[in-house]
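Possible regression after last week's pipeline update?

I re-ran a chain I had predicted before the update to compare outputs. Posting the input and the new output here so someone can diff against the archived version. Not blocking, just want to make sure nothing changed silently.
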Amino acid sequence: MKKKIPEVIIVFVIKPALIFAGLMCIWYFLAISNFIGYISTFNTVWIYIGVFLILFTVFLKQILWLFSKMHRIIKAVCLCLVIIFLSSFFIIESLVFINARSKNTENADYIIILGAGLYRGGPSLTLLRRINVAVRYANDNPDVKIIVSGGTGQGQRISEAAVMSRVLQNNGIDADRIIIEDKSTNTFENLKFSGEIISGFDKKVLIASSEFHLFRAKIIASRLKYKNVGVLASRTPRILLPTYYLREYFAVIKTIFVDS
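New output (post-update):
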C-alpha cells in the first residue's frame, strides 16, 4: 500500500509554509528595491519565485495527484535532478562563502578592480565598495598600480572604468597610478583584458571585488594562467547577500561550462 502525506500536514503545515515563503520572497524584492533605490533585472527573480510558490501551493493537491500517476522511471529522473541541483547548490555556495575574504594581499604590483555597474552616472553601491577597499590598500602601498576594469553598459554614456578612475582620483589616488581597461563586459573579460595590459602573468595581482564574487574571480584567474593572485574583499550590505549569493550560483555554473 502506497503511503500518502496526511491531509492534515498538507493543510496546516506544508501549505502555510509555502505561502509564507512566497510572500517573504515578494517582500524581500520590495525591500531590496527600496534599499538600492531602483529595480535591477536579477532582483525580479524574487517576484517569480514568490508567485511560483503561491501558485504551487494553490495547485498542490493536483500536482501531488499528477506526480502519483507518473511512471516510476520519470519519478526517479525528477528526483535525481532535484538531488543534483540541491547538491551542486550547496557545494558551490559553500565554496563561495569559504572564499569570501581577503587573502594573500602582501606586496602587490597591481590591483584589478572588477566592474559592478553604474547608477545615474556614478558607481553603484557594490562598485563603490570595491573602489573603497582598493583605495585603502593603495594608500598603504604607494607603489601599487590600479587597473580599473569595466566597459560601457547598455544605456550608459560613460564606461565603468572611467567612473572608477574619477572616484579614485577624488579619493587622492594619482592619475599616473591608474590604468583604464574599458572594453570588458563581464568578469572573464575583466581579467583577460587586464592581464593583457599587465603583459605578464608573473606579476603579483590583487583582485578587488565583492566577497561573494571572489571564488569565481579566482577560478577565472587560474584559467587565464595568473600565477600570483591575491584578493581584496569588499563587504556587501547584508540585506543584499541572498540576491548576490543566489545569482553567483548560476554565474559559477556559467564560468565552469561556458567561459574559456
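Follow-up from reviewer: compared with the archived run. The longest helix spans residues 7-36. Marking as no regression found.
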